[in-house]
Amino acid sequence: SFYSxxxxxxxxxxxxxxxxxxxxxxxxxxxAQWRAKRYALRxxxxxxxxxxxxxxxxxxxxxxxxxxxxxxxGEYEFVEWNAAQDGSGVKYESSTLYSIxxxxxxxxxxxxxxxxxxxxxxxxxxxxxxxxxxxxxDEEEEDGNxxxxxxxDxxxxxxxxxxxxxxxxxxxxxxxxxxxxxxxxxxxQGLKDKKLKVKIYTLSGSLVGEYAAVYGAKVxxxxxxxLASGVYMVKVGDMVGRVVKK
Length: 246
Known about the structure:
- By secondary structure, this protein is mostly beta strands.
- Helix content is about 5%, strand content about 35%.
- The protein has one helix at about 135-140, and strands at about 1-5, 15, 30-35, 40-45, 55-60, 75-80, 90, 105-110, 160, 165, 170, 175-180, 195-200, 205-210, 220-225, 230-235, 240-245.
- The longest helix has 9 residues, at about 135-140.
- It is elongated.
- Mean pLDDT is about 75; it is low at about 115-165.
């Protein structure tokens, strides 16, 4: 942006403003002085520990430079900084040229490293071997059926072995809403004080949505209209479920 007029091309001479008294005995040539636009690049840890400092001064059309690496409790791995909270925006690295004419907030993107949440297979050390084989277990859980033949669950998600997983409906999702039976969440730690979160992951482990679970309601309804078609894992506390978005 324009900064001032100066008698020297490099800005080392006299600065002229509207109040400058003209004292030269002859013509004077003035050179425009320009200052690069500076903006604030802010950081949102998006579920992680806030970074310090939480913002960075950047210059328009110049690489943003070194970016902080946030941390998050639990089994999460930092993936990238993104201009959109759900990771659908522009990825920012140290070499990214800042091309926004204004301030911007970047959101940390996370990948779950909890393999147990990306597949619902538990090792049974109690000798309860009622299943034919592990491959059958995988196929049945992908279809939302349990290993006891209970295939009439209207939610599409039933119990897996001796462990109940989330009841989600409609499944598959054909609109923009996903509902969770909150009754099964009432004993989970953190629900009453509103700290319990509904988290949605891709099958590769990328977090694509995080919402507050509703205490005292029969149903928790979340907006998933932004999700692309595919299969997703939904996690609330230590409970998980699989849902298809069409």
